[in-house]
TrEMBL record:
Keywords: DNA-binding, Transcription, Transcription regulation. Residues 55-74 bind DNA. It comes from the Bacteria. Residues 32-92 form the HTH tetR-type domain. Gene3D superfamilies: Homeodomain-like, Tetracycline Repressor, domain 2. The keyword Transcription applies. The keyword Ribosomal protein does not apply. This is TetR/AcrR family transcriptional regulator C-terminal domain-containing protein.
Length: 255
């Protein structure tokens, strides 16, 4: 899945800051700065204004320090975004593993969806090359626990988790686009479709397009628009879990 990040973090510098093995120089001493404070300020900016508004200068202004003082702790924006992602992963709840595998995966899916809703910028920042920080590793280890006792191979366990989280991210991205379009156009999805109603009534008739007319009308009534983010997420999640249940049943039968 493509990312809109314009810079690539240097792996060595990124890992050093993620695992806090890089010691700051004396430039930031005495100003109360720390990697954690800088990252928190950066997350607040990205949450409120998006990734495009995030610069090292902007972070410095938010903290009341010069830009070079920020660079003392974090070598660049790309590395900063890596630490922001890992820090956000650390916010996620990790309750004791309870219930059957389906209940566990549902909870994991909803927790990840909630994370994307809090930090929509993550949908742009994440790539298929994971940020290998401590919170990501802990998150991965915890979430694998949901399928650890199903008789799956290690590769299948990873694939199941990837499948569920892929659905979550796809759903979160679609829901985010709905929000962005409303902000950019000043119209909700419902209002946009209402403005197109005269055209639809004229051209999308039951005689000309019987299936599209019937199904489109039913979906529009259900969602109040052409697309319902919540319904799409719930429907898709259950179908993903249904598919996983087939694999689980096969492994149980062959075990």
């Amino acid at each position: 899945m493509a990312s809109e990040r314009k810079a690539t973090a240097d792996p060595a510098r990124s890992l050093a800051i993620l695992w806090r093995t890089r010691e700051p120089t004396s430039r930031g001493a005495g100003q109360g700065l720390s990697v954690d404070r800088i990252v928190r300020a950066a997350i607040d900016i990205a949450d409120a204004e998006g990734l495009d508004a995030l610069t090292m200068r902007r972070v410095g202004e938010a903290l009341g320090v010069g830009t070079m003082s920020v660079y003392t702790y974090v070598p660049g924006k790309a590395e900063l975004v890596d630490v922001m992602i890992d820090t956000a992963y650390g916010e996620m709840p990790r309750p004791a593993v309870e219930g059957d595998w389906r209940v566990r995966l549902e909870r994991i899916a909803r927790d990840n969806l909630a994370l994307y809703r809090r930090h929509r910028w993550m949908l742009r920042a994440e790539t298929t090359r994971p940020v290998l920080g401590p919170h990501l590793v802990a998150k991965y280890d915890y979430e694998l626990g949901a399928v650890a006792d199903l008789g799956l191979t290690d590769v299948e366990m990873d694939a199941v988790l990837t499948l569920v989280l892929g659905h979550v991210k796809s759903s979160a991205r679609a829901a985010s686009e709905v929000v962005d379009l409303e902000r950019e156009t000043g119209l909700t999805d419902g209002q946009w479709w209402q403005s197109h109603a005269p055209w639809l009534e004229t051209f999308l008739t039951a005689d000309s397009y019987p299936t599209a007319s019937r199904v489109g009308t039913a979906a529009g009534r259900q969602h109040g628009a052409a697309y319902g983010p919540e319904y799409a997420f719930e429907f898709g999640l259950q179908r993903v879990l249904d598919g996983i249940s087939v694999v689980v049943a096969e492994r149980a039968a062959n075990g």
